[in-house]
Specification:
Length: 384
């Protein structure tokens, strides 16, 4: 896999970097959080006009025909600025799941509206017992004369605070497996509770009380939604990991700058060897995380499903832990001021804490890795 950016990818990265540097400073972000805004309409329109909502969607669906690399480049720059808009949940997780699950007519109908920013979609897959993984699923779709009636609860719906429609995973009695449905936010029987997260972003909890959906609202075939969920989650996990790498980069830059100006005993504290060692450790952890991200991108492009899922779990665990370590060290090197709301560096740690519970915790993914390795070992023993 070639990790050198081509001309178009470099232009994309530069355009996002210019936006976050000029239009998305820390003061702008702080104002959004204090206003408890779930999303800036102006920023969202900018995302749409620049093609950042459609970067990895096919041209036939109103996209730019890009790949996961384009999403990762955007996520990396958004991570540096701690963008709170639900780009990850709507433009990556929901978009890629809809792309994988929907029929050609469904994709051509709905994805252009997502691409131009006129409609927000969110993926409602997570439940209390699933812990960020696509299964098990308790939400039920009972067969009715007109289609189905959905009953159950979905938690931690990223981008769900102001989504217009939801992609919902459910179990149906007429199929063995997970089925996906497209449900509009104003459907009767559907209630939404907006949940503020620790980093200033928002999620939603959805309650379904016999929400009616037609058979036409089913995405793809009944019982075949798991593969689409895994595709969307793999893409979103890669984007989240890129966001964390970008956040680590910025946290290290801010810390290095602070060490140059903060003085003790008449000299910059950056001249103290012990602090130089600590920031070197932070940089080393970040580079290991970046290498793991590259390995994940290569796996998504080249490996079969089992190997790809194993690499997703490896990356989510390693990069999540690295981000928490690096950002915690950044706070400590800033001293007491690093704990204040006015200090930018502490907000990178908050984002790392929230990212830990998105799409499965590090411990949960470690357990998935162990199960995968045990399965491979048993297969080898059986073939021996």
């Amino acid at each position: 896999m070639n990790f050198n950016l081509n001309a178009e990818q470099q232009l994309l990265q530069d355009s996002v970097r210019r936006f976050v540097d000029k239009e998305y400073g820390f003061d702008t972000r702080t104002a959004l959080i204090k206003a408890r805004s779930t999303s800036s309409a102006q920023h969202w329109q900018t995302f749409a006009e620049n093609g950042w909502l459609a970067a990895a969607l096919p041209e036939s669906c109103g996209g730019l025909g890009g790949t996961l690399i384009d999403s990762v480049l955007i996520a990396h720059e958004f991570g540096r600025a701690l963008v709170v808009e639900p780009w990850l949940g709507c433009a990556v997780l929901a978009a890629q799941t809809l792309l994988a699950a929907g029929s050609p007519s469904q994709r051509e109908r709905w994805l252009p509206q997502l691409a131009d920013g006129s409609r927000k979609f969110a993926l409602a897959y997570s439940e209390a017992q699933s812990r960020g993984f696509p299964e098990p699923v308790d939400l039920r779709a009972q067969v009715t004369s007109n289609g189905y009636a959905l009953s159950g609860t979905k938690t931690l719906v990223i981008g769900g605070a102001n989504a217009d429609s939801f992609i919902v995973s459910a179990l149906t009695p007429d199929a063995d497996g997970i089925t996906l449905f497209l449900v509009h936010a104003d459907a009767p029987g559907l209630s939404r509770r907006v949940l503020p997260l620790h980093d200033g972003s928002f999620a939603a909890e959805l309650t379904f009380e016999r929400v009616p959906v037609t058979r036409e609202a089913m995405l793809g075939e009944p019982g075949e939604g798991l593969a689409a969920l895994r595709h969307g989650l793999a893409q979103a996990t890669a984007a989240l990991c890129a966001e964390l790498v970008g956040g680590m980069e910025k946290a290290i830059e801010l810390t290095a700058d602070y060490l140059k100006v903060r003085k003790q005993f008449g000299v910059p504290i950056g001249s103290f060897q012990a602090l130089q060692h600590r920031i070197a450790d932070m940089a080393a952890e970040m580079e290991v995380a970046r290498s793991m991200l590259y390995a994940l991108l290569a796996s998504i492009e080249n490996d079969d499903e089992a190997a790809r899922q194993h690499c997703v779990s490896q990356a989510k665990s390693l990069i999540g832990r690295a981000a928490r370590f690096v950002c915690a060290q950044a706070i400590q090197l800033h001293g007491g001021m690093g704990m204040t709301e006015e200090c930018q560096v502490g907000h990178y740690y908050k984002r790392a804490v929230v990212a830990e519970v998105l799409f499965g915790t590090s411990d949960a993914h470690d357990a998935a890795c162990a199960a995968h390795l045990q399965k491979e070992l048993l297969q080898k023993e059986n073939h021996a």
